[in-house]
């Protein structure tokens, strides 16, 4: 079954030095390689800052756009992994290894099978 792991964190708490940035990059690279080696990774991407986000809503047939993320929160969506696991427990085990889980949160949701 496919699961998406949505990685949330506080953008204000991002690494401030090149060394901190390199360390977190290495942690994500190691996790990604472990996921690939286990045959669990289907896709994954980091996202640009929420300052680049635009939210779209349609109300009464009118399209409304707003700069920024969809909601005011302390944590922002920073990236995701799409993984293939046998069950939710296995997906949760993999999600717990995502480096961002140590300082933010990872939302795990099954992907709806519509076909």
Approximate strand percentage = 35-45%
Largest β-sheet summary: 4 strands, antiparallel
CATH topology: Alpha-Beta Plaits
Q: Strand pairing plus helix content: what structural class? A: alpha+beta
Kindly list the characteristics that best describe this protein.
four-stranded antiparallel sheet; flat; 115 residues; Alpha-Beta Plaits; 2 helices; two-stranded antiparallel sheet; alpha+beta
Word description of this protein:
It is a single chain. With about 120 residues, this protein is of the alpha+beta class. It has one domain (about 1-110): 2-Layer Sandwich (Alpha-Beta Plaits). About 25% of the residues lie in helices and about 35% in strands. The protein has two helices and six strands. It has helices at about 20-35, 90-95, and strands at about 1-10, 40-45, 55-60, 60-65, 75-85, 105-110. The strands form two sheets. It has a four-stranded antiparallel sheet, covered by helices on one side. The longest helix has 20 residues, at about 20-35. The mean pLDDT is about 90.
